Amino acid sequence: MEFYLTALVLGLCLASMSLGIFISMKIFRIPDITTDGSYTLGAVLTAILLTHHCSAMLIIPAVLLAGALAGMVTGIIHTFVKIDALLSGILVMTALYSINLTLLGRSNLPLLDVQNIFSSLTFFSASVFNNLALGFVFISLITGIMAYLLRTDFGIAMRATGNSEPMTRALGINNNKMKVIGLAMANALTALSGYLVAQYQNFTDINMGIGIVITGLGSVLIGEALIKWWNIRSILWQLVVVVSGSILFQLVLAFTLSIGVDPNLLKLVTAAFVLLIVLIPRLKKSE
User: Fold this and answer.
1) Helix count (H) and strand count (E) of the chain?
2) Average pLDDT per run of 10 along the chain, which is 287 residues long?
3) Which of the following CATH numbers is that of domain 2-286: 1.10.3470, 1.10.8, 3.40.1180, 1.10.287?
């Protein structure tokens, strides 16, 4: 049981990244590969600042700013330099690998002996339930803030930009500016996931972000399938379902490990699972 609770906590920690990918992939229709780098960037900054005895809560603004800057660079390269969005993300992700390695100074950094957010805030005596409660509170706050923002005039303009650029351009909305801000928000949320996961796992590794975009995309695709199935219109409930998709994705991986699948094959299982999620709706349409 504790094995699945651990997967549940990890799903909550990664849900912030899923919300970020929801913004880039589903609102702006931009395949943003910067995710792999900004996720690690959040974890790297967290590890460095924690080992320098900074408060875990005070690290959050630094992590959000760093992730936002990474997303802004991708957005600027795409919108103003006019380079394909996918290539822009790959360029920034590649650059971030060197930046992260330079900042960390080593391939990995353990965080066993430092005070982190999970050990600082105590709701329950049992650590697994305390981690679960903290993850739930954290992602609830993020989801609520995102839902409020996306229902403001600015948020509606962002969503409209993703739906129809010619229409928003005719209304005087700067589409390029909206894309840059959207990618900044998406990567800030992704970096926040790195912040949480690094503390939950008690270490930061330079390669922890490799392929993480697949995990986030799988969560979003699960959420999208549920949104269409239940015909959800409310932006708040759409975000809640995306968070649920992140949790379900981790529970599926946990089940895969529990039935004896080799952990070395976990990335293969992840890729196959995402492929299956993409194929099922298409197979239903072809029937």
Assistant:
1) 12, 2
2) 85 95 92 94 96 92 97 95 93 95 92 87 81 92 95 92 88 92 96 96 92 88 84 92 92 86 82 78 61
3) 1.10.3470
